Every structure is written in C-alpha cells, then in structure tokens.
C-alpha cells in the first residue's frame, strides 16, 4: 500500500527542517508570495516523497531532478522562463549535495516535458490522503500516471546513463 511504502521512505528520507532554506523557498508552496506562483508544482515534503514513490524514483540527484520536473510539467503551466530560472537555482545556487549537474538538468527538462504530455492530474494538487490505502499501481491509475510512459522514458534514461545507479533500478 502507498501508505506503507511512504512510512518506510520516511525512515530514510530527510526532515523538512534539514533542507536548506533556499531550497524550501524555491520548492515549498509555504514560501510562495500571495498571488505569485513562481514555480508551478511546488509541494511540501510529504507530497514530494509520495510523488517519488508513485513515479518509481529513489532519492539521488537524477531522481530528484525527475520528480521535480515531472511535478512541474504535470501542472501544464511551466514557461520556458520558469524552467530556465529553476535550472539556474538548482545548478548554480543550491548548496551541495542538492546542486544539479548538467546531466541532472537534462533529466529535469525531460521530466518537465514528460509531465506535460502525461494525462495525469497535476501532481501538486492531488488528494494523497485518499490514496494511502491503495496499492501503488492503483494509486497511479487513480491519478492517471501512465506506467508505460514512465517505463519508455526510463529505458531511454538507462541508455543515456548506463553507469549511473539512478538509471539502473527504475521501476524494477
């Protein structure tokens, strides 16, 4: 069940308070200015972790890049300026180990487009509480995440980055 997997992930994931403030400011809607949505798809840490599970991603850099990109893309509201601004932050301003490499940025950009073409609900707005007692497959189906679409992209990612651990274990 999604809730059980989330409880396991919580035991190894980071706490919200351990995430640098700059990253929280960029990625957490709690820090949005009223009436100003700079980065579409911003989520709190719990939602972000649940999206990791539903997208079949781990906790390393390319996994983060994919989850953030897909979530932003699923909003169908990301402009090229917003994408550029996020890459600026994640590549040049985020502290290590949160900083993205060029290949992480490529995964992020791919994921933005994949989220955009997906027929899933905007992932930042899903009622995850109603999914916690479902299997991961049923939760994906309920919100419209197409596993074949993910598998097709993950096969491409494995070919691009055959020696990167994030690309060796996708959805397997």
Short description:
55% of the residues lie in helices and 0% in strands. It has 172 residues and is an all-alpha fold.
Task: Give an overview of the whole structure.
- The chain is mainly α and 172 residues long.
- The chain has one domain (2-167).
- It has helices spanning 2-12, 21-27, 45-55, 61-74, 80-93, 102-117, 136-143, 147-160.
- The chain is globular and about 35 Å long.
- The two termini are 17 Å apart.
Question: How many E strands?
Answer: 0
The end-to-end distance, rounded to whole angstroms, is 17 Å
Helix content: 55-70%
How many domains? The number is: 1
Largest sheet: none
- Structural class of the helices, strands and pairings? mainly alpha
Q: Could you tell me the radius of gyration in angstroms?
A: 15 Å
Q: Mean of the pLDDT scores?
A: 91
As a percent range, the share of strand residues is under 5%
H/E topology pattern: HHHHHHHH
**Overall outline:** globular
Secondary structure tally, helices: 8
SSE blueprint and pairings:
Layout: H1 2-12, H2 21-27, H3 45-55, H4 61-74, H5 80-93, H6 102-117, H7 136-143, H8 147-160
What are the main properties of this structure?
single chain; 172 residues; mainly alpha
């Amino acid at each position: 069940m999604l809730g059980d997997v989330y409880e396991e992930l919580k035991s190894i994931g980071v706490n919200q308070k351990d995430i640098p403030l700059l990253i929280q400011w960029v990625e957490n809607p709690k820090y949005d200015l009223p009436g100003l949505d700079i980065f579409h798809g911003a989520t709190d840490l719990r939602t972000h972790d649940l999206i990791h599970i539903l997208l079949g991603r781990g906790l390393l850099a390319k996994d983060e890049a994919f989850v953030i990109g897909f979530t932003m893309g699923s909003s169908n509201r990301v402009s090229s300026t917003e994408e550029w601004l996020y890459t600026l932050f994640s590549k040049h301003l985020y502290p290590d180990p949160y900083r993205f490499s060029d290949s992480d940025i490529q995964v992020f950009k791919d994921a933005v487009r994949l989220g955009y073409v997906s027929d899933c609900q905007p992932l930042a707005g899903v009622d995850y509480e109603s999914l916690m007692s479902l299997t991961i497959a049923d939760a994906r189906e309920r919100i419209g995440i197409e596993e074949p679409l993910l598998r097709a992209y993950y096969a491409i990612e494995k070919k691009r980055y055959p020696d990167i651990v994030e690309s060796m274990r996708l959805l397997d």
